[in-house]
Task: inverse folding
């Protein structure tokens, strides 16, 4: 149900023949921009008197705070503590919302409660104080005949219509100054999402709205209540179009009607989707320069986690559903989650993997550590951070020996018969580009080209160089049977890996933990042109999880300095390590992160240029 705002400046007669529906309003409270959602969450049960007395001339929306009082006596000191708590725990609330207060007494106090709040209310400029329970005549504050909301609402800041008594949620508006989003989203009452219509002036950026954190309480059923999530624009969200990073694609197709089940799991667990995030076209990885602002994020989970100081997981293949997600290569695709907080990361993983989390299928952590690409002694600050982490992990796991892995030489001495004596780099060289180019071409490109041509007199849409070069190569430089061969080679490698490198174990799920350096604080500047996009051939440690279907998880472990060619000063970048275990042992690595946090070996990185 849509609510029609009747702003005081609107002449009712002039809109009689037009269809006017509100997409919400932008309101400034204490200098901060807010968005009042168009869908009321409740409506007041009060006398008309009260509403008219609360309406300041020209202002239709009254900032209001709903407070839950659990004390037996709501004194000035309880009130101030609550205001302090709201201010500290929520970036949406500010004291401007204390113009009106609705107090819901949920404590076990007497039926008639005293609210000796006069001075405190004056201090915050409170014009309207509405206790839900009867109050004594000796109360110092003003009160009105008021029985409450038709539907009780959670504590927090809201906007109340002075004309209708309807109550609307408050979203704080932020400028997307990093250019990370394609659209700001807001949930509709029917469970779909729609595009946020509000805009904060200045900053030359899109606007993102976030609801008050005070509306949400985490519970067993809603472990992600109020967690704000951005979703890469290759996951469908009902009510919103998907772009896959391509404007022609975005124009061509209508809004999706079904949300990808991975995203739906997050929403069902209480997460709030605040926007769709930029992707390279059709998720074909590339390194961005600042000339082309559409491309901000490259890689999918692992690289953005490594360079931004986040925990992130590429799951074991198949454990998280991919319906409603754009295909790059179904043989390789997975859906993961990145965040700074390892506890939130684990909570989100339990929701995303659902019953596939397999946290309970091991009794102890692995004792065996394998490293790949580690230095033997540290010659840089970042290497010092890396080796210090390794040493603490060895102590934590009670590991006695750490083995350095050399994949090409181990392969050379144990080459599977099916590989016909090929070195590993030759054997796997074109597996990745064959799979992504040929599988994406048949599943996505062909139907997209056909639909686009049908709607545009036979024309082809514009495609960025990176996907175009790969699709062309997959259609002209390799045979049509290359996908089958690539899957054979990938499968041979996967079996070799789990028999020779990281073996499964009944005791610890994975016999060993394999570490490789994720990022070592070396900058990738955006004001430097790189080589033209090409075909991503080759094999390296970062391809192992794609081919062996094993989890590859990023832990931020510290930071190190570098001399910036931009600021001409010493700056800091994150240091990260990647962790791989046997297929299906993802749950054990989330547990490990949590235990390492408790042991002080891992921390929660901060935002900004100093992550630790
Ligand atoms: C304020 O927060 C503290 C710490 O979370 C809590 O102990 C206290 O009960 C809160 N006070 C009120 C009035 O909610
Ligand atoms: C768990 O993984 C299996 C194997 O890929 C998949 O078929 C199943 O749908 C997954 N279960 C859930 C609850 O996601
Ligand atoms: C693909 O084949 C064409 C024509 O034979 C050749 O010019 C081109 O270099 C090849 N592309 C790649 C990436 O190998
Ligand atoms: C698969 O491996 C064979 C070697 O046995 C190699 O000749 C071929 O190019 C590989 N094919 C793909 C698509 O990876
Ligand atoms: C794990 O236990 C099962 C059943 O007891 C057994 O068949 C299997 O070989 C064991 N696997 C390993 C890796 O020890």
Result:
């Amino acid at each position: 149900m849509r609510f029609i705002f009747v702003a005081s400046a609107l002449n009712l007669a002039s809109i009689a023949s037009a269809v006017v529906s509100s997409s919400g309003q932008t309101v400034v409270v204490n200098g901060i921009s807010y968005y009042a959602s168009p869908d009321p969450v409740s409506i007041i049960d009060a006398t008309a008197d009260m509403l008219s007395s609360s309406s300041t001339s020209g202002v239709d929306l009254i900032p209001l705070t709903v407070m839950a009082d659990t004390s037996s006596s709501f004194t000035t000191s309880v009130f101030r503590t609550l205001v302090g708590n709201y201010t500290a725990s929520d970036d949406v609330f500010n004291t401007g919302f204390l113009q009106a207060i609705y107090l819901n007494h949920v404590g076990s106090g007497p039926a008639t409660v005293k609210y000796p709040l006069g001075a405190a209310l004056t201090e915050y400029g409170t014009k309207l104080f509405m206790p839900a329970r009867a109050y004594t005549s000796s109360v110092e504050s003003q009160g009105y005949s008021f029985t409450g909301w038709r539907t009780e609402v959670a504590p927090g800041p809201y906007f109340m219509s002075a004309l209708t008594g309807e109550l609307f949620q408050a979203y704080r508006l932020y400028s997307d100054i990093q250019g990370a989003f394609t659209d700001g989203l807001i949930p509709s009452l029917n469970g779909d999402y729609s595009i946020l219509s509000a805009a904060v002036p200045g900053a030359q950026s899109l606007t993102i709205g976030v609801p008050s954190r005070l509306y949400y309480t985490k519970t067993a059923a809603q472990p992600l209540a109020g967690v704000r999530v951005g979703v890469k624009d290759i996951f469908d969200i009902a009510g919103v179009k998907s772009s896959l990073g391509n404007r022609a694609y975005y124009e061509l197709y209508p809004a999706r009607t079904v949300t990808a089940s991975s995203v739906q799991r997050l929403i069902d667990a209480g997460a709030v989707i605040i926007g769709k995030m930029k992707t390279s076209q059709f998720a074909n990885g590339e390194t961005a320069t600042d000339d082309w602002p559409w491309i901000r994020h490259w890689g999918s989970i692992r690289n953005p986690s490594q360079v931004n100081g986040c925990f992130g997981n590429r799951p074991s293949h198949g454990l998280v559903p991919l319906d409603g997600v754009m295909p790059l290569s179904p043989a390789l695709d997975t859906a993961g989650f990145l965040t700074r907080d390892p506890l939130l990361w684990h909570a989100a993983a339990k929701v995303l993997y659902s019953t596939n989390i397999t946290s309970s299928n091991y009794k102890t952590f692995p004792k065996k550590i394998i490293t790949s690409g580690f230095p033997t002694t540290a010659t840089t600050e970042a290497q010092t951070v890396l080796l210090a982490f390794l040493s603490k992990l060895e102590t934590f796991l009670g590991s006695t020996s750490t083995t350095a892995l050399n994949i090409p030489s181990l392969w050379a001495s144990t080459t599977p018969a099916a590989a016909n004596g090929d070195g590993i780099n030759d054997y796997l060289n074109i597996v990745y580009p064959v799979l992504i180019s040929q599988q994406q071409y048949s599943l996505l490109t062909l139907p997209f080209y056909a639909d686009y041509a049908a709607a545009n007199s036979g024309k082809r849409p514009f495609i960025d160089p990176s996907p175009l070069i790969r699709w062309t190569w997959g259609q002209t430089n390799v045979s049509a049977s290359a996908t089958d061969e690539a899957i054979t080679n990938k499968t041979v490698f996967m079996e070799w890996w789990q028999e020779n490198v990281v073996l499964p174990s009944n005791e610890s799920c994975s016999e060993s933990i394999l570490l490789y350096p994720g990022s070592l604080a070396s900058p990738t500047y955006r004001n430097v042109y790189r080589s033209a996009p090409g075909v991503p051939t080759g094999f390296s440690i970062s391809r192992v999880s794609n081919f062996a279907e094993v989890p590859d998880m990023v832990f931020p472990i510290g930071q190190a300095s570098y001399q910036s060619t931009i600021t001409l000063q010493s700056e800091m970048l994150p240091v990260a390590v990647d962790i791989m275990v046997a297929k299906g042992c993802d749950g054990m690595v989330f547990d490990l992160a949590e235990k390492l946090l408790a042991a002080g070996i891992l921390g929660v990185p901060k935002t900004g240029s100093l992550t630790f």
Remarks:
- The chain has 15 helices and 23 strands.
- The longest strand covers residues 552-563.
